[in-house]
Amino acid sequence: MSLLRKVRSGVVLLAVLLSSSLMANPEYSIYNLRPGVTETSQEVFDLHMLVVYIMTVVTILVFGAMLYSIIRFRKSKHPVPAKFHHSTKLEIIWTVIPAIILIYLAVPAGKLLLKVEDTSYSDMTIKVTGSQWKWHYDYMDNDVSFYSSLSTPREQFEDYSRTGTEKGENYLLEVDNEVVLPIGKKVRILLTADDVIHSWWMPDFAVKMDAIPGLINETWTKIDKPGVYRGVCAELCGKDHGYMPIVVRAVSQDDFDKWVGQKHAEKAEADRLAAEAAAKSWSMEDLMADGEKVYMEKCAVCHQANGEGLATFPALKGSKVTTVDSPDDHARQVIFGKNAMPPFGDMLTDAEIAAVVTYTRNQWGNNTGQLVQPGRIKELKAGK
Amino acid sequence: MGSHKPTGISRWLFTTNHKDIGTMYLWFSFIMFLTGGAFALGIRLELFQPGLQFWDPNTFNSLTTMHGLIMVFGAVMPAFVGLANWLIPMQIGAPDMALPRMNNWSFWILPFAFGLLLSSFFLPGGAPNFGWTFYAPLSTKFGPPSTDFFIFGVHLMGISSIMGAINVIVTVFNMRAPGMTLMKMPMFVWTWVITAFLLIMVMPVLAGAVTMMLTDRHFGTSFFDAAGGGDPVMFQHIFWFFGHPEVYIMILPAFGIASHIIPTFSRKPLFGYSSMVYATASIAFLSFIVWAHHMFTVGMPVVGELYFMIATMIIAVPTGVKIFNWVATMWQGSLTFETPMLFALAFVILFTLGGVSGVMLAMTPVDKQYHDTYFVVAHFHYVLFPGAIFGTIAAVYYWLPKWVGNMYNETLGKVHFWLSIIFVNLTFFPMHFSGLAGMQRRVPDYNMMFEDFNRMSSIGALGLGLTQLLFFYIVVQCVRGGTGKATGEVWEGAEGLEFTHLPSPAPYHSFDEAPEVK
Lengths: 384, 518
Hints:
The complex is a heterodimer. Chain A is an alpha+beta fold. Chain A folds into 3 domains: 3-117, Orthogonal Bundle (Helix Hairpins); 124-270, Sandwich (Immunoglobulin-like); 280-381, Cytochrome c-like domain (Cytochrome Bc1 Complex, Chain D, domain 2), CATH 1.10.760.10. Chain A is 44% helix and 15% strand. In chain A, the strands form 2 sheets. A 5-stranded mixed beta sheet of chain A has the order 3-2-1-5-8. A 5-stranded mixed beta sheet of chain A has the order 4-10-9-6-7. Chain A starts with a helix and ends with a helix. In chain A, 35% of the residues are buried. Chain B has helices at 8-14, 18-46, 57-92, 100-119, 147-174, 187-218, 232-249, 252-266, 273-287, 302-314, 316-330, 339-362, 364-370, 374-404, 410-437, 451-479, 497-500. Helices cover 68% and strands 0% of the residues of chain B. Chain B starts with 7 loop residues before the first helix and ends in an 18-residue tail after the last helix. The model of chain B has no long low-confidence stretch (mean pLDDT 95). Classes of the chains: A alpha+beta, B mainly alpha.
């Protein structure tokens, strides 16, 4: 094989490798954006590839000219430098040509922008509320709502002993309650937040929109293909910003309707159980046992499992709220929130709040001996 | 004027000499560079593998925040002020800066500002943990108590920057040698004057933002709280109205530096001097009207997004002009590759890479995918590390023989260069890929699919950090005698008053009598 042919086949191989790393198996590239599963995500991907190719050519031209100068005009090869120091013609050329390239890019970008911002004529609406560090979803047309948070167990990521932990395939990209959406329907997504700014990012839909406390943003998507799609919170939102994934399961309209029915049935059952639990009088042991479960799920993320707090998150062990304040004041703070602490009134049932208040007043040496019954929580929620 | 140099500690405490103050700025900047670098290594240590091994997520957030703040305000900006102090009087034929006492003050504020900021690590609640962009309400309602130290620290460094900028402007407009018209000024002076105007216009905006934060936190106002009629998005508009020009504050002086070094080692005058000046001025002007391209996901009206996209893309034109001019300067020159030239060439090449990813980021519909991912981290580190930092390093190699009268060790300088360029790419290039594949910024942990690229970045970062200790050694060795005396010209055919009219080392009061510029 002649040297020239070797070089040529090398270049071809490199080009194939490059383009395959950028384009092959586009659904799950570890190098590149994904074309995704919506019309807009495909168009965003195409525009991205267009600008990548154009910028690659521009870069090769600039680097080529530099490399040529470095090789050809080194002092040993070119001892007497030229004297020229300007050329109006050249300067006009390299002002105008980049401007033309930019216009060539700006036109499709502008068109696509108008398309991705057009939320009109939607088929259904969901409201997404970010709060530290979970998402709340409201299906405005279906009377379904739920919280969705990370389901990767803490043991998988807390590896402070540095011994390594076994991790699942969807490590940090899995949740307890998936968002279920029908395919082929234009879904309008409203976004807001309870506390700080979050950002709902679903790469496969090319949707990223900030969820801002006190404001409502809107965006939309229309999913073409059934499947499970994973995204994350993209805006720094405090301690567990990296632990607030999003999972969307796209299904057919029939399956979606079935899922809504199932959600309604679950809700009715949960309400019934909650009412039953709220009506009965609980023993200390039962409250402590349930309280520990609720605490570990909802409270330990900030106040820590040992109740000692972390940085700005106050300790509950021996604190004023859990030992000196009355159980009513304590419970009110859990229900209505205070400063950076979010209100848990809508997130937990009366029995759960009673349990967790009792638990925190009698754990880690907070031996107040006081217990709170769900009935009292109900009264407090009503403002009594 | 005789030489009346005080000695010992009082020389440094009370000095009003532009060279002493420049030296202090540069050493301060280097200490901050190592401090910010240590935080970066802390970040890379945690990101070496998935899972939490070393820091809890809150401490990790403090590390990213302090890394950004220290590098931007403590390393890059003081380095440029230090270079301005050393070079501007020598380049315009003046004995010193116009306002020497203010010069002293603007430096000595800095150790206190950064002492305050760094002490926050030892406060209850820990150091600021809301990112260097300190978006409300994460920094207001949810910020740790040390946020107030941060606010006061930012005020102090803002005062320092504004005083430094005033000093540059007054010096350049009043103390140029006879015959040096504006369009004969060296490029470094031009870029710094423009930078100084940017500083004067935007540092007060930053001061306003942190003051509003302070009153929101303690005095019951609601500038950034929707519950009280305020707007968290307004914070971002104010911040980026400061923040975007700030980006150019951190690169324009490096443009100036490259415009000195490339002609010297190409043995050919700078191509298109006047278009360089106009391009710099256009970039500075455009920097004020593109700020919201950092905010394409906050839900702006679509017309606003279109405007900010187009305005941002326009910046590529004057920036392109600068790059083409540097290449044209090299064209048909007679090139040699001493260490300053190597760093200047790497600056042009890698800054170009940061520039093309900048064009990608400008395009709103695709930016909505790139935004807040490691792709952005890759982009701005390509313009900051090989841009601002390589620019500063190139300047030190280029002018150090003039400052101290000795030559540095060329072999070690080249080793420093090659290690730096290998590691800088190993650190930051993989971030393009992990960002595109879906890794978001500012997280201590990630899915295994990003592991390979993060590992490369972590190894690169360690190498890049250690390599800079070699730089420290080379500089100290050069100050202590180096490899021999430097000539007045230092580099064959070097242009500029500092090389043509002053011996090496340059005298304490640069020019006792103003030189004549023809």
